[in-house]
Design goal:
Number of domains: 1
CATH superfamily: Glutaredoxin
Radius of gyration: 17 Å
Shape: globular
Order of helices and strands: HEEEEEEHEHEHEEEH
CATH class: Alpha Beta
Strand content: 15-25%
Number of strands: 11
Length: about 230
């Protein structure tokens, strides 16, 4: 590998490490389960930093009735409970994501085209993942009723469907569907170096932001940010 490529790799790896450290410092990451470094070193440099205060631009409707507040409508909304949510400056392609449903039938994200999607990677052995499942269930119930938004929570339990099915049954999940990818590559393919990792996708299936570590997905801050993404991409 050339010196230039090595330097680029080091910089991009450092970007995600910085995000994770920031999350720890601000108290939002809690316990975060590391998956190791494989496949997690290619991170785009085109990321916007969280703004401590919402940025509101005054735009005349007669000048631009389609104006949106910043990148994908999310600028200035990664505050409070969403401080560690990192907004992409431009929508980014992600690796092809495949998994199975509760009936062990193959599924992929192309089925969600046309919707804003919160893609959550979790596992039953990950304590912070288990803690945020009820919140994600509530978020889907609150914002997913009109068909423009969905939460796709994919378990990466290598044992298959049994453990995640039992866990979701035990906590009486009512809205989330059960999905599983037991191949062990989903995390690295999506450049997620730990669990949980959550990506926000636009209706074209492109990443417009992500959050490393657990979050309070039922909070007003989370609902406000997701609503902005839905409206900006509708």
């Amino acid at each position: 590998m050339s010196n230039d490529k090595q330097a680029a790799k080091s910089i991009s790896t450092g970007t995600y490490v910085l995000v994770a450290v920031l999350a720890v410092i601000t108290g939002f990451i809690g316990v975060y389960v590391n998956l190791g470094g494989d496949g997690n070193d290619q991170v785009s440099s085109k990321l916007t930093k969280p703004d401590p205060k919402p940025v509101v631009e005054s735009v005349s409707k007669t000048e631009n009735s389609d104006a949106k507040p910043g990148p994908q409508g999310l600028a200035g909304l990664n505050v409070g409970q969403m401080t560690t949510f990192v907004v992409r400056e431009e929508p980014q392609d992600i690796a092809e994501v495949t998994f199975v449903d509760v009936n062990n039938q193959p599924r992929n994200l192309n089925e969600w085209k046309g919707k804003t999607v919160l893609l959550n990677l979790w596992a039953t052995w990950c304590a912070p993942c288990r803690k945020e499942m009820p919140d994600l269930d509530e978020l889907k119930a609150k914002l997913g009723q009109d068909g423009r938004f969905d939460v796709v929570a994919v378990s990466i339990d290598r044992g298959g469907l049994d453990k995640p099915r039992k866990f979701l049954d035990d906590i009486a999940v009512k809205n989330l569907e059960l999905f599983n990818n037991s191949g062990g590559k989903l995390g690295s393919d999506l450049k997620a170096f730990g669990m949980p990792t959550t990506l926000l996708l636009d209706p074209n299936g492109k990443e417009i932001g992500r959050l490393v570590g657990p979050a309070d997905w039922k909070s007003e801050d989370a609902v406000r940010l997701i609503k902005a993404a839905i409206e900006a991409n509708s």
